[in-house]
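Progress against Task 2.4 (sequence-to-structure conversion) is shown through the following example record, which the project officer requested during the mid-term review.
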Amino acid sequence: MTRSIKKGPYIDAKLLKKIADKKPDETGVINTWARASQISPEMVGFKFGVHNGRKHIDVLITEDMIGHRLGEFSPTRTFHRHGGKLMKELEQKKREAEITAAKSAKSAK
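Structure tokens generated for the chain above:
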């Protein structure tokens, strides 16, 4: 559900203070924990270090990001892969197919 128009967008006041009267190319990475803060047009060009619970992820703000939240660009969970016994069998068959293809290509020369 979106925030009401009457209230306006939520932008952390500390973030606005940090970027006020500064140029994006002169300012380094601005670390922040305000993942819920919306990206405003004043933030374009700045680089924010958005905390994901473990470390700060550098996010360069572009015009396409306006209206989104900072947390959307700093994932909190890492996907390793789906797996199990079936996945291991498929990977083994794939490796065997690559080995046979390499052997047949070598013998064709």
